[in-house]
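Lay summary. Proteins are chains of building blocks that fold into shapes, and those shapes determine what they do. In this project we predict the shape from the chain. Here is one chain we studied, written as its sequence of building blocks.
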Amino acid sequence: MSDSSSHRRPQLILLLEAISSGRTDLALDYFSPKEIDWAIQSGLGPLMFRSIQDGNNDSASVAWRSLKAADLTVRILTSMQLEAMAEIIDACSGRAPMLTLLKGASIAEEFYPNAHLRLMRDLDFLVPKEYVPAVEEILRQLGYRQRGEGSPDRFDGYHHTMPFFHEQKHVWAEIHHALFSGMQRASMETVFHLGNILGELRPSSFQGREVSRLSHELQLVYIACHWAQVFKPVGGAVAMVDAIYLLKGTGDALCWARILDWVNGCAAATYLYLLLSYLDRYGLVKITPEVMQQLAQSQPSFGKLRLKAAHAIIDHYFMEGQDFGSVLNRRNLDIAWQLLTLPNPFLRKLILRKVMLRSRRRVRFR
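And here is the predicted shape, written in a compact code that computers can read:
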């Protein structure tokens, strides 16, 4: 349901509306130079360029040229990434179980009108943990080398090993053996336990090669949890577009009963409700009121005021790219984001008390 309240909605919602409806006739004049720059920085440049193709726009303008350059850059990068992904799949064939594509490597080719419209910073794929050393060796044979802060041992508690980088191809790859690390709240949810994940793998193809993908239901919950667990304004809108395209691509085939059963009463419900309620607020997706009501009742964190506060943060920092201030700085907003999604009032008060004590100590010793 679209929000008809008097609040000022972000101008980039126009772009999300165009993405949702498939429009390609937006006018560039709708957007300020700052909004266009933020769209490019956030990974929406190619999508914005697609949305203005049939509009009455000046192709000689600075804005048009900037968007065209962003589109061309991502086209080249995506072409190299897709070629690298196919090479990795071929190299693993017969030496490791079928790879399960994750994130952009999965959703870009399956749901986006063109794969390059979904910016990918790296290639993410899932393999059984016992096969991680074998796949790491395959990547080394293909010319990839591990890069990151510290040693590979630092990633022992992570859900993926130290990232690999191919210097000639300029491609990053991450080998996942779980969807979340043990340090993240979502890792404790039943929906992300190994047994459930294995039951939700679906045979698929990637450029004619056999791969696995998460079921559409698990994919949606994964997108929401990965997005909402961390306050990350740059690129935060990409997950929203992922959800829009997935929901449009699956339509009535999505099994909401299974999703609601998975997330009932846990953090995953909070994260999914936050994402879907924001999209529903602006009428960007079609979800029945019954589903939204059940989801609202199953999540333990958001009442009206806290949900309004979370939506305001998304408006200001994910969609508008507002600068951080001295009080509402990046660190404090990250804390606020985490507090808003906590289910337990006692935990919220405890964390706030610790933050206030830490702040007072810093002031005292300056």
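What the prediction tells us: The beta strands are 100-102, 123-126, 145-146, 164-166, 171-176, 201-206, 209-214.
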